[in-house]
Sequence to fold (367 residues):
Amino acid sequence: YIRRSSASTASATTTKSLPIAGSMFHSNPVERISGQQPRTIISDVYLYSIRHKFFPLNWFTKDRLQLAQHRLHDLHTKVHRTELTAESTPSEVKVLVFDMLKMSALWGDDMEHMCMSPMKWLECMSNYLSALVTLSPAHSLGFDGLALPVISFATEFGKHLDFFRNYPDFETSYPIWYTFKRTARNEILQGTLFSKDHYVQNLAILLQVRDQVKLLTASFLQLSSTPAKHPSDSDLRGAIAAKAPRTVTNDSPQSFCNTDSPKCTSSPTCIICAASHLLRLHLASAIAFSDGKPCFSAYQDSELRTLKPLGSAKETKPICIPYNLASGCKHQHDDGRLHICSLCGREHSALSRVTSCLCIFEGIIRP
Fold:
């Protein structure tokens, strides 16, 4: 009973020493002026946190500042112990700061430019500058009454803000220089002085890289949008003939031999009907050899295909054109192009002139 009585007495004494009546001071009155934004109030939890942490810029929006001012209990804070000085009181040794880990999970960070728009960036930077002005020492006065130049975090931060705020094409260039700006801002808070030449040089490099990326992207899009050009039969013959090893002889490549003589002439040989014309000039209506026998292949939509389905297949099959030329083709096609003779359908090229080909007579292709 004695202990309970003493405890109630101590509680009553504490209550009397901290009266609630008259304790609600209007310390930061905000006057509303037409056409102007109300003055932004930076709460103590922000000011104490800035002194010990790199503060994410997107935490300085007007809404979040008001939330910390009026609903601090909804945010994550912790008690931080400061060093006791001659001017500080014991109550000032313990201060309230943000719990950065939990607050980062709640509000995010400012690593990427998508976290805020260019206009919101200006708002946050102005509020951050107001906090630094509050934390920075007042200017000293000289003998003439003018303020002496004092290097402070606020003055260097203000130069940093003015540089980007007045930068040409501020909104369009915002994503380009954002990462550099964030790094430079943290360097200022570490004690680095603002250097306009350094900023101009780095931004010039960033813009140059941006222009090069644009050129490469445009070139890639142009190439990808250009339809693939299928080489004609004459182009393929020319390319293969150019790659074929040259020998000391007067004979022309076999793909250009005349139907009347195994010796060289300038007349081409059609690999569908063995007539003296190019494959791409073969008439769609010509589906038989000169002796009346049906052709094995046909040229449809710039593609060489079997004239009729093979075996139990319901559709005609594509035939590899390079395979039927003099040099042949060693590739396996994913689209199922056949490596067969376009003249008779056997496993040899049309212009190889093998004796097993049904259209070869004494080494000459006969239509």
The chain has a mean pLDDT of 77.
